[in-house]
Design a protein that fits this description.
6 helices, alpha/beta, globular
């Protein structure tokens, strides 16, 4: 699991190196995106009160997702297959594909903006809700990396926050049915309000 920080002193030398590298590589990824077409895609969703307007800051999100990719080692591994649980607008998978990986996302199908952005980025996606104690359907392949960033499917900020049993079920399902032998599962959490935080962490996985 990776955590983010806004204070420079919280970063190691390796983190600072990755931050600089991520910024440089993210600019290269950004250059591969048709800016005019991107603006056309987000234009219908650019109302002042739109709750996902933060995702329109493309360069910011590419830098953040590039940092995650570097932390996982996406840039150092041969081309493989990457699955993103809760892929949102698709920035992380677009970054992974820049390094030659085959990509696939899972997310709900009911956000018109995310639908348009994923379609624009050309990200294949399975439309479903990740629920406790519900196995994922067959996805047609196993994956070298299964990632989830800033997740909400675990009952984030609610009285239904997942505990050990829910996480054991999901991790076992991923390991047994979707992850290649020797593959990596990388999960990053949204911070939980203090009254929900006691059960927010998953069990340690041997995957």
């Amino acid at each position: 699991m990776f955590a983010t920080s806004s204070r420079l002193q919280d970063y190691s030398i390796a983190d600072v190196f990755n931050l600089v590298k991520a910024a440089t590589l993210a600019e290269k990824v950004n250059a591969s995106i048709d800016e005019l077409q991107f603006r056309r895609v987000i234009a219908p969703h650019s109302t002042p009160d739109y709750r996902y307007a933060k995702y329109f800051r493309k360069r910011t999100w590419l830098r953040a997702k590039m940092m995650r990719a570097l932390e996982i080692g996406i840039d150092r591994t041969p081309p493989g297959a990457v699955l993103d649980l809760g892929c949102g607008p698709g920035y992380f998978l677009y970054v992974c594909r820049y390094f030659g990986h085959a990509v696939h996302g899972i997310d709900l199908p009911d956000d018109p903006c995310f639908n348009d952005m994923v379609r624009f980025f050309g990200i294949p996606r399975t439309n479903l809700e990740i629920r406790p104690y519900r196995a994922l359907p067959p996805l047609g392949a196993r994956f070298d990396v299964i990632a989830a960033h800033q997740i909400c499917f675990n009952g984030h900020a609610s009285d239904d926050l997942w505990g050990v049993n829910e996480w054991n079920f999901l991790l076992a399902d991923l390991r047994d049915h979707h992850l290649k032998p020797g593959g990596t599962i990388a999960i990053e959490f949204n911070p939980e309000p203090s009254r929900f935080a006691t059960s927010s962490a998953p069990p340690t996985s041997s995957v």
